[in-house]
Design brief:
2 copies of one chain form a homodimer. Chain A is built from 6 helices and 2 strands, in the order αααββααα. The structure holds FE2/S2 (inorganic) cluster (2 copies). The first copy, chain A, binds a DNA duplex through helix 3.
Chain lengths: 150, 150
DNA sequence: TATCATTCCTACTATTCAAGTAGGAATAAT
DNA sequence: ATTATTCCTACTTGAATAGTAGGAATGATA
């Protein structure tokens, strides 16, 4: 799969919401995540339509996650922003067996991205901030990390 | 990684060479693999420069594999045609931990594609042609398949 | 009720990248 | 010489991504 700027931005925005404990303005997200202001609006809208986030208009409005960070997988976000990848063009019969391989690649990738949640990413980041407390330190990102929003 | 038409074509061409037992014209490859004629030239040239195939000019010329099909992994071909994927743009600090994940994705993918050789693909194709001879049939593509060129 | 800050929506422009083409030079067989 | 092929650079085109524009709808506050 392609990792577009849009996807990168969307994940950044989702992470920003995951660590906040109250609604966040698009403006703030745009600034802290370094996303072009108008583009940020655009992406947040898409995420809301997909049901990943909720929103409130007017002053004192903003965005927040629809579910706790531990229940949102990276794949959930990516599927939205990358949309349905257009089927790759027909194969010459001779190259047909390659299709099976592309399928394997995709499932492999999907498996990984479906297992990692926003909470995992945040936990991993926090672990990297206080560098190596123990010697044989954090390898795996545990899937049971953050549940609440703070 | 992206599976471009170019990559698809290149793999088709390599497979065509893998099953041939003497030099093959670009023309023939283009026809049998359904590759636009001129584009085919273009791709073959790139493959030759990368050292994956050899060539001979003039009438009675053509292309052939530089190594036996069992020693050419799909990754070898793909790395050539996809080129050095341009580094994805800088992350906002907040989204930095994602970089690690992209890396994991890439290695996972590279591992799979490095294990499968042209010979494996051909063997798999042949196995699919005579449909299910035994009941619990071929799951894995053995890596020790064809060695010679026929 | 007026005002203001925000989200929401459609549609547009610009930039980049992949796909494919063009024209011919170099080489080798006959 | 002629002809069939590979070889090489550069160009054109099409599609997709990235980002922008303009304003309508909503909701808080006074
Ligand atoms: S990155 Fe998605 S299949 Fe390779
Ligand atoms: S297809 Fe290569 S990393 Fe996703």
């Amino acid at each position: 799969m392609r990792i577009s700027a849009r996807t990168q931005y969307a994940l950044g925005a989702m992470l920003a919401l995951a660590v906040a404990d109250s609604p966040v303005h698009a403006e703030k997200i745009a600034v802290t995540q370094d996303i072009p202001r108008r583009f940020c609006d655009n992406i947040l809208l898409q995420l809301r339509r997909a049901g990943l986030i909720r929103s409130q208009r007017g002053p004192d409005g903003g965005y927040w996650l629809a579910r706790p960070p531990g229940e949102i997988a990276l794949a959930d976000v990516i599927r939205v922003t990358e949309g349905a990848e257009q089927a790759l063009r027909p194969f010459s019969p001779a190259a047909a067996p390659l299709a099976e391989i592309w399928d394997r690649l995709r499932s492999q990738e999907d498996a990984l991205l479906s297992e990692i949640t926003l909470a995992d990413v945040i936990a991993s980041r926090d672990r990297h901030q206080d560098r190596d407390r123990s010697s044989g330190n954090g390898q795996d990102v545990p899937s049971d990390a953050g549940r609440g929003m703070s």
